[in-house]
Amino acid sequence: MIRVGIVGASGYTGGELLRLLLTHPEIEVVQATSESYIGKFAFQVHPQLRGQTQLRFIGRDALQSCDLLFLALPHGEAQKYIDRYAALAPKIVDLSADFRLRDPAAYASTYGHEHLAPEWLERFVYGLPELTRNSLRSANYASGVGCNATATTLAVYALVKAGMLPPTQPIIADIKVGSSEAGSTPTDSSHHPARSGIVRPFQLTGHRHEAEVRQSLAAAGAYDIRLSVTSVELVRGVSAAIHLSLPIGLSDKDLWSAYRAAWNTEPFVRPVHEKSGLHRHPEPRLLAGTNYADVGWEYDPATGRTVLLSALDNLGKGAAGSAVQCMNLMCGFEETTALTFGGFYP
User: Fold this and answer.
1) Which of 117, 218, 284, 288 is the most buried (most CB within 10 A)?
2) Which residues contact 182 (CB under 8 A, 6 or more apart)?
3) How confident is the model at residue 47 (pLDDT cuts 50, 70, 90)?
4) pLDDT tens digits for 115-126?
5) Count of alpha carbons within 13 Å of 123, Cβ hemisphere only?
6) Any residues with CB less than 8 A from the CB of 169 and at least 6 apart, and which?
7) Mean pLDDT, residues 80-85 taken together
């Protein structure tokens, strides 16, 4: 058993972390902070945890040493106190955007201010195991992932890896998201200060997650990534349609070969491309509460027009699920532990 704490546990991602970790056989959650709910039971804020835990929220000043800390704070907060958190735990998984980008200049241009702890950026491994698994196994610090960045990266990565998608054209991702992506309160938002439940556009140009995708694909070239993110009548979920062109005359077999080569050994990425039936393409509602990402495509061999598709739960594979997956790798546990829930249907 390792002793784990969650800093900022009253938000949506904090609640999802608690839900996952309370079922983890190798973990004991010993502390969870919330400056707004000090002394309250976790289940009073996260009603899905009734009967699951008697844990009470504490303030960050009451944090004690433990084996691993999850930081589920609003963006910009973890970097302010990272030295203090690192003194309390030898391993850290940060779910915010504070340590996702390795280049301080890229961080400043993306987030509009200088990083407060730039010397820490290189210490964090980007927390997308499908791309950084070997580094995570020996890491002490892992960053979170952006849910829209994860959906986009997983959609295009198979073709990039197969050499079928050179960086010679814009990659335009039209992304639809659920209201929970705005956070449980305005200050929880990892994107914009929109209250949960309000359906409104998020960001149509210049989305911050573009920098993550460019960084993830940089080894294959300087890709021109353009995200357009809007919200729809959905609570949990990300659905991405990525528009691009491929050479004419390809076959479904060619595309299947690329996707199988990339994902057949991955426990949480599933190609979905059916020729008939109701569920031919990835659907976010089927993935609510899971750590799975489904990816697929539609291709016109006569014109080369291609739409790549992906779906995931923004609180699962797009946040807390990936964070637990990183922890499993960092601590030497089976990677899929506590993450195999398959979702609901219908």
Assistant:
1) 284
2) 188, 189, 191, 192, 193, 194, 195, 196, 198, 202, 231
3) very high
4) 999 999 999 999
5) 16
6) 224, 244, 245
7) 97
pLDDT tens per residue, range 267-325: 999 999 999 989 999 999 999 999 999 999 999 999 999 999 999 999 999 999 999 99
Q: Which amino acid is at 263?
A: W
pTM of the complete model:
0.93
152 and 268 in a common domain = yes
Residue 217 tokens, joined? 């694909």
Is 190 a residue whose pLDDT tops 60?
A: no
Residue 66 annotated as catalytic: no
Decide: 19 and 46 in contact? Cβ < 8 Å: yes
Catalytic residue among 66, 147, 326, 331: 147
CA 248 remoteness from chain centre:
33
CATH of the domain at 283: 3.30.360.10
Q: How far is CA 344 from CA 45, 285, 290, in A?
A: 24, 8, 9
- The letter for the amino acid at 183 is G
Question: Would you list the DSSP string of 77-113?
Answer: SGGGSHHHHHHH-SEEEE-SSTTS-S-HHHHHHHHSS
Residue with tokens 């504490």, as numbered in its chain: 58
Assess if residue 129 is contained within a domain.
Answer: no
Of 17, 40, 95, 31, residue with least CA distance to 61: 31
- The domain tally of the chain equals 2
Instruction: For residues 155 and 102, state if they share a domain.
Output: no
Range of the domain at 45: 2-124
Residues 56 and 182 in one domain: no
Strands (E), 182-327: 201-203, 224-231, 238-245, 269-271, 293-299, 305-312
Coil, strand or helix: which one is 209?
helix
The pLDDT, as a whole number, for residue 185 is: 56
